Amino acid sequence: MTCQGCLVPRHTLVPVCPGKNFQIISPPESALVTRELAEELLRVLDRFGEIARRSGFRKVSIFFKPGIFGHHKVGRAADIYAVNGLGLDEWKRRWDAVWRRCSSVTDANERRAIVDHERQRNLGWQLYKALQTCGRWSQPYGYPIQLFGPWTRSEGPWKHISDFLLNAHRDHIHVAK
Ligand SMILES: [Zn+2]
User: Fold this and answer.
1) Residues 6 or more apart from 127 whose CB is under 8 A from it?
2) Residue 12: pLDDT band by 50, 70, 90 thresholds?
3) What is the mean pLDDT of residues 24-49?
4) pLDDT digits (tens, 9 = 90+) for 129-148
5) What's the CA-to-centroid distance between 79 and ligand 1, angstroms?
6) How far away, in angstroms, is 51 Cα from ligand 1 center?
7) Distance of CA 72 from the midpoint of ligand 1 (Å)
8) Which protein residues have a CB closer than 5 Å to ligand 1 (ion)?
């Protein structure tokens, strides 16, 4: 699959292209990024869409919002706020509610079944894990890997994320390349 961004000069920022397995429902200017980041997102989001499809979802939709600080200034970062019309904060609330419910279930098999079921259904978590396991994100010298979101403290890669940074990423996932 090719990204339309390949046809423009290297220094020009391009919108992230939709892929075979996912669509983008935010305006193109919500994620104007470097060609390198656009291609990485296309690759990883398409993989995510493929995984979601296997869980029985139809073509998933992604919603970006523009960012302001740091890597965003030069188009090296993108912020994802919603998957299939539901905000990342909502997906995380659902996730937390399931884990709370689990804590009162004494049978280990039943607990595992509940969590497995949620893993199949929770597109926010699935998106985060796809970005974490399939994505190659920047890691400036002395800084953590640039993938932050509602699941960073529990899933990594930077489990020591500060309260300040975690609070800043409760409703979206930030990636930089
Ligand atoms: Zn960001």
Assistant:
1) 48, 80, 83, 88, 173
2) confident
3) 97
4) 999 999 999 999 999 999 99
5) 5
6) 24
7) 6
8) 67, 77, 79, 174
